[in-house]
Amino acid sequence: MKEDIERLVQKLGLVPHPEGGYFKETYRSIGAIPTEVLGKPFQGNRNFCTAIYFLLTSDSFSAFHKIEQDEIWHFYCGTPITLHQISPEGDYSKQLIGSNILTGETPQLVVPARSWFAAAVDEKDRYALVGCTVAPGFDFADFTLGERNTLVQQFPKHQEIITRLTRT
């Protein structure tokens, strides 16, 4: 596994991601949506769309975070990822993102804007390569990394999963 991960990181030019795993932006549209069209909560123009490669391993996880846009996850290779979501209203759900559709995995999943979400590779010594597409385009100004105590106070019935998939 370690050799495959190192080869993928090198071949795709991936770098560590702030929420865990590795990534590389692969697309950022030239066109942009003006701030006055986007409205709140956006400050500044946003590209129409952005896309990244995202590599996650069983040694790490993508910590709970949220963005102001919808994010579409696409499965490419490796083992399935479990994506955990908590809606703004506090509803929890999880879905396996993978290629085995007949066993309940989905190769594509949309995370709605402003939902808290985290992801993990549940199988030991494994990895998954996915893509994430965001529209309007991603900007770190729209990114909020979840803080454990704050999320537990906001969603106490989900304390176990929040504690497992946050770092601070």
What order do the helices and strands come in, and which of them pair?
Blueprint: H1 2-12, E1 15-16, E2 22-28, E3 32-33, H2 35-38, E4 46-47, E5 50-57, E6 61-67, E7 70-78, E8 81-86, E9 92-97, E10 108-111, E11 116-120, E12 127-135, E13 143-145, H3 148-154, H4 159-164
Antiparallel strand pairs: 1-2, 2-5, 3-4, 5-12, 6-11, 6-13, 7-10, 7-12, 8-9, 8-11
Could you explain the architecture of this structure?
The protein contains 4 helices and 13 strands. The two termini are 28 Å apart. It has a 6-stranded antiparallel β-sheet, covered by helices on one side. It has a 5-stranded antiparallel β-sheet with strand order 9-8-11-6-13, with no helix packed on it. It has a two-stranded antiparallel sheet with strand order 3-4. It has 168 residues and is of the alpha+beta class.
Brief characterization of the structure:
The chain has 168 residues and is of the alpha+beta class. 17% of the residues lie in helices and 42% in strands. The strands form 3 sheets. Strands 1-2-5-12-7-10 form a 6-stranded antiparallel beta sheet, covered by helices on one side. The protein has a 5-stranded antiparallel beta sheet with strand order 9-8-11-6-13, with no helix packed on it.
